[in-house]
Amino acid sequence: MSSSKTEISNPLDAIPNEIPYDVPYGPPISLDQAQAVIQAAVAEAKKRNWKMNVAIADSGGNLVAFERMDGAMLASIQIAQHKARAAATFRRPTKVFEDGINLMHLDYLLAFDGVIASRGGIPLIEHGKIIGAIGCSGGTDSQDEVVSKAGAAASEMAHA
């Protein structure tokens, strides 16, 4: 009887052919664009009677616009800004980090400066380039994501 072991490979050892989330950085979002994204996100939050903080970062992760709805949780001010900054600088939705840690147990992600493992941060893309990102906080992660998606959708429609 031969003892043959099947080796389980480490999925982190896989070498992709392309860099994931390789979306180029573009020119920074304008204030008018940022305010339109915020308006769409706030309209979605109001429709659902949710109190949110909404932040828009530019393509370099710098704050461009911010709105705190009446009664929104104060702790969520910094969280919304962090989500926007992380989505822009890491070029991916912050849900990727949440899934990486909670579902895939990639705890090393927590060691990266600027990571936030909470959905609600979404890059804003124009002509195939990142112009900024939206970050929302104030509710559950799933509520934050709904509001962020509404803002991101408004940005996409404006550039279609």
Task: Chart the SSEs and their pairings.
Blueprint: H1 31-47, E1 53-58, E2 63-68, H2 76-89, H3 95-102, E3 121-126, E4 129-137, H4 141-158
Helix pairs in contact: 1-4
Description:
With 160 residues, the protein is of the alpha+beta class. It is built from four helices and four strands, in the order αββααββα. Strands 2-1-4-3 form a four-stranded antiparallel sheet. Strand 3 (121-126) and strand 4 (129-137) form a beta hairpin. The longest helix has 18 residues, at 141-158. It starts with 30 loop residues before the first helix and ends with a helix.
From the alpha carbons, calculate the radius of gyration and give it in angstroms. 18 Å
How many strands in all? 4
Q: What share of the residues does DSSP label as strand, in percent? A: 15-25%
- Class derived from helix and strand content: alpha+beta
Number of helices: 4
- The dominant shape is globular
Portion of residues within helices: 25-40%
Q: Main beta sheet, described? A: 4 strands, antiparallel
Order of helices and strands: HEEHHEEH
Distance between the termini: 65 Å
Give the overall average pLDDT: 93
Instruction: Give the spatial strand order of the biggest sheet.
Output: 2-1-4-3
| Uncertain ranges | none
